[in-house]
Amino acid sequence: MIGKSIRIYLADGSPRGLRHVEIANWSGQALACPRSRFSELKNWPESQREGVYMLIENNYSGGQNKVYVGESENVFKRLSQHDRKKDFWNEVIIFSSKDENLTKAHIKYLESRLTLMAMEADIYLIDNIKNPTEATLPRADKDAMEEFIINLKMILGTLGHRLLDPLVNLASMNQEKTNDSLIDKLLFLEINGHKASGTQSDDGFILMKGSEISVSNTTSVPGKILELKRNLIDDKTLIEKENKLILEKNIVLSSSSYAAALVAGTSRSGPQSWKDSKNKTLKTLEENLLKKK
Predict the structure, then answer these.
(1) Are residues 12 and 154 in the same domain?
(2) Tens of pLDDT along 96-131?
(3) The domain containing residue 210 runs over which residues?
């Protein structure tokens, strides 16, 4: 991996206002705009050309966010006439080309690929009714669009939206990871007959699909965990089987302790609860890494 320089221009000096984003030596660009500032986009020519866009829900109450992926030869006009009527979103991100070299076939290809990637990642709920048909492109153009997507994903991450990458790549998981990182190292928790697995990530602690969650809760469980458990049951991410709640997909929590508390149904220390395949606690693994510095 090599470093990247990303330039974010804050149109009015506000980090949550309208932002123009570029990557050094890339012909693409992005405009990120909160719904409350939507009218300001009409003053930006970058919003009135061919491009793809994402209508994103930023739900701060802990529920699962929603996203809609679209394309247009004039994104601002499209949003004004149609998708402005959608209720769920509170931020739009538009991707276009600075040299205006994106054709209708290019943006149709991008729309299809991005929708499929968001569906496969299964982090955000997808508002698209169906996956758009992928446009047929010459091999060189297809490769160029795949490179465009790599930079697009980098910008999305910089803006705080990880919606195109699965939370964890199971093929990369390593029980015996020995380098100076705990990222992607498999960790386990067994308590009161419940078994769970997880891993550290740059986004937080990932509790993995198939983990067994306690049906009951003690009074020591943090209120946020109780609310999260209710939401996960309501949206069928947690399914009750044989007096256990089974996690149907990977989820990310802010800390290993929150993950441990969710599994156990009681307040727990994550660093002391999670262990690797050699029975070393997460706390020990972290301390060993610090000793190497």
Answers:
(1) yes
(2) 999 888 999 999 999 999 999 999 888 888 998 877
(3) 170-292
